[in-house]
Design goal:
The protein is of the alpha+beta class and about 250 residues long. It has 3 domains: about 100 residues, Homing Intron 3 (I-Ppo) Encoded Endonuclease, Chain A (Alpha-Beta Complex), CATH 3.90.75; about 45 residues, no CATH class; about 60 residues, no CATH class. Helices cover about 35% and strands about 10% of the residues. The chain contains 9 helices and 9 strands. It has a 3-stranded antiparallel sheet. A two-stranded antiparallel ribbon has the order 1-2. A two-stranded antiparallel sheet has the order 3-4. Strand 7 and strand 8 form a beta hairpin. The chain starts with a helix and ends with a strand.
Length: about 250
């Protein structure tokens, strides 16, 4: 920092404030902090004040305000500054009222100014379209993947919509009943026509165990192999194993 930059710096603040703050009178950033020239670049005025009074700022630390009343972003008084972390800065701002929280937050004081749902410029969905998605999901008329394909969104985006994580200002509809796949669904057809289990064992009469009143088939070879591995794991003090062979629908 040049001597000329330091000399100019000391001419750009007012010491007349009753609370002892030295308020910056030159250029201000958008957030209200003063900005000054250190001889090479533009930097925040309160940081420059700290460096003039105390030397370089350690890496990873911020220069925080500790003004008597509340955080005065224009203040460059070295006695009103301290070093701290990002978390300490946020905590101090909440405690002194620099950040509005709770009932003082803008969403509470001016809810009409919050752009939600279809008023947001980055969404192509309308409120009615979102409610239609939720209605069809609640009525089990369509799956997440079907809705995602139809609306040209990801499955995660549709999941957030139906769960209420997004579009929170609209009501969430509870899901009803159980959606049953039709008999001609490809998954049902594939399971009915399968001649071997997923592990490659043939569904013979002796190797097939029927469940659910004869609606489902399970491979006896897979069941027996799992039972042997499970007994061996328990003998060694381990947890029960999960069976790997899935159930197939009867033909």
């Amino acid at each position: 920092m040049t001597e000329r930059a330091i000399a100019i710096f000391w001419t750009h603040f007012n010491k007349e404030a009753e609370n002892g703050c030295w308020e910056w009178t030159a250029s201000l950033k958008q957030g209200g902090y003063g900005q000054a020239w250190d001889g090479q670049r533009v930097c925040q005025a309160h940081r420059l004040s700290w460096e003039i009074a105390h030397g370089p700022i350690p890496e990873g630390l911020w220069v925080l305000h500790k003004c008597p009343v509340k955080h005065n972003r224009k203040c460059v008084n070295p006695d009103h500054l301290k070093l701290g972390t990002v978390k300490e800065n946020a905590r101090d701002a909440v405690e002194t009222g620099g950040i509005a929280t709770g009932e003082r937050h803008g969403t509470r004081t001016h809810p009409e100014a919050i752009r939600r749902g279809e008023l947001c410029s980055w969404t192509d969905l309308s409120d009615d379209a979102v409610m239609e998605v939720r209605r069809r999901w609640a009525a089990r008329e369509a799956s997440l993947s079907e809705l995602a394909t139809e609306k040209r969104l990801s499955i995660g985006a549709i999941s957030s919509i139906v769960a209420g994580r997004s579009w929170q200002h609209l009501p969430i509809l509870p899901r009803r009943g159980i959606r049953k796949m039709p008999p001609d669904h490809p998954a049902h057809v594939r399971m009915r026509t399968a001649t071997h289990c997923p592990n490659g064992h043939e569904y013979t009469e002796a190797n097939t165990r029927r469940q659910g009143g004869g609606k489902w088939r399970r491979c006896r070879t897979c069941i027996n192999e799992w039972a042997r591995r499970n007994r061996a794991a328990k003998a060694k003090g381990g947890d029960s194993l999960e069976i790997t062979c899935s159930t197939s629908r009867s033909a």
